[in-house]
Design brief:
Strand order of the largest sheet: 6-7-5-8-9-10
CATH architecture of the largest domain: 3-Layer(aba) Sandwich
CATH topology of the largest domain: Rossmann fold
CATH superfamily of the largest domain: P-loop containing nucleotide triphosphate hydrolases
Number of helices: 16
Number of domains: 4
Largest sheet: 6 strands, mixed
Distance between the termini: 58 Å
CATH class of the largest domain: Alpha Beta
Radius of gyration: 25 Å
Structural class: alpha/beta
Low-confidence stretches: 143-149, 159-163
Helix content: 40-55%
Strand content: 15-25%
Length: 426
């Protein structure tokens, strides 16, 4: 049994449904909250829902619902109450006073999962920054109270080591963490320059969509895979060979999720830098999930918030093998006719996907013709790294090449081959 599977707390999940909201979507949100709790190590034994026009400013829920939850908590030795939306410090404090148990919201739960799963210095720094920013508007005494009295989920991270911290110290720490991430960004830029020239693809998608499995299939690399949310926090970059024979890079990024804490998105910008510098994005979707369209929208909105919207993107509908073909599969095919249907787990249509990756890369590249003299053959290794060779023909004075170079790599290519170029697309 892995650490993530060890149940450490008994919890209940609570959701407020605003009048007029879609009940089916609300139900799926609550199921996802229970999955998040399981990922963190809590077993959700019961869920509570209430429909209101707007949240109660003091206790989020109505008085009667709070009493109902309180009774269940006492009778079933519940140690944790998780709310599906963010609570204000006042609401959290009042609810804890009423329920006499630890109360956290979705953001705190997600931050806790990230804190548990962060492995690299960068990921740990990003999570700590997000936690500090989440803590900032909340009373320091609240965090101290949680850490001393309850422990467990929702209190992992800076709360354990900086219980006595005050707002001034938190502000200083936030600044230090931001500076540390800037240094990591600079190091990443230097590393990226060393990889300049190779086609770059980045996997993006909703959490648990199968990105890491697809990464393993394409690159044949040993990539960590687990049927849990946020199995991947640190960006992984691996080499692979395109169907044209050209060497390329594929990166796997942290999965997105609805209601992802704003601070977490901001602090993970550097991790997602691989996506922003990629030539082509591969948006992986779990098409077997009934709410996959909602997941697509969440990913697109998150990319927009990160200002990553101008990239050529391939929509990959994964887990094809899990779809009941009798339940509207043809309609899905028709609706997403420009996408690629695959099963990363079973290796279905992977070749078609890789052909599509090459096609999209070439379409978004510039055609350049040049002649490489025979006494410059030492540049061949650079050529095959930076360009896709479409055609070549030996002449008396050298080899005539027709190549495709991605627009982002044109300057790099010209710095090596400009004096040999005979024609280039505008």
């Amino acid at each position: 049994m892995t650490q993530a599977n060890i149940i450490t707390e008994k919890a209940i999940a609570v959701q407020l449904i605003l009048k007029g909201s879609d009940r089916e979507i609300a139900r799926e949100h609550l199921e996802e909250l229970a999955f998040l709790a399981l990922t963190a190590g809590a077993e959700v034994t019961e869920t509570f829902k209430q429909e209101l026009q707007k949240p109660n400013v003091k206790t989020y829920l109505g008085k009667g619902k709070v009493e109902e939850i309180k009774e269940y908590v006492k009778e079933n030795t519940i140690t944790l109450v998780i709310f599906d939306d963010d609570l204000s410090p006042v609401q959290t404090r009042n609810l804890e006073k009423e329920l006499e148990v630890k109360v956290i919201d979705r953001s705190a739960l997600i931050l806790d999962i990230f804190a548990r799963r962060a492995r690299s210095t960068e990921a740990k720094t990003q999570v700590e920054l997000a936690q500090m920013q989440y803590l900032m508007p909340r009373l320091t005494r609240m965090w101290t109270h949680l850490s001393k009295q309850f422990g467990g989920i929702g209190t992992k991270g800076p709360g354990e080591t900086q219980i006595e911290t005050d707002r001034r110290i938190i502000k200083t720490k936030i600044q230090q963490l931001k500076e540390r991430l800037l240094d990591i960004d600079k190091q990443r830029e230097i590393q990226s320059k060393h990889r300049s020239g190779m086609p770059r693809f980045a996997l993006v998608g909703y959490t648990n969509a199968g990105k890491s499995t697809l990464m393993r299939v394409i690159t044949t690399a040993d990539v960590y895979i687990e049927d849990k949310l946020f199995a991947t926090l640190d960006t992984t970059v691996r080499h692979f060979t395109m169907t044209s024979g050209q060497e390329a890079l594929l990166s796997d990024t942290v999965g997105f999720i609805r209601k992802l804490p704003t601070h977490l998105i901001a602090s993970f910008r550097s991790t997602l830098a691989e996506a922003s510098s990629a030539d082509v994005l591969i948006h992986v979707v779990d098409v077997s999930n009934p709410y996959f369209r909602d997941h697509i929208a969440v990913v697109e909105e998150t990319l927009e918030s990160l200002k990553i919207t101008d990239k050529p993107t391939i929509l990959v509908l994964n887990k094809l093998d899990l779809i009941d073909k009798s339940l509207g599969f043809r309609a899905i095919e028709k609706e997403f006719k420009d996408s690629i249907f695959i099963s990363a787990e079973r290796g279905i249509n992977i070749r078609n996907l890789m052909e599509k990756m090459l096609e999209v890369y070439i379409v978004n590249s510039k055609l350049i013709e040049f002649v490489l003299p025979y006494d410059q053959m030492n540049l061949l290794s650079v050529l095959y790294k930076v360009a896709d060779v479409i055609d070549s023909e030996e002449k008396d004075y050298g080899i005539e090449y027709k190549v495709k170079v991605h627009s982002d790599d044109t300057e790099f290519f010209k710095s090596r081959f400009e004096k040999f170029i005979t024609r280039a697309e505008n």
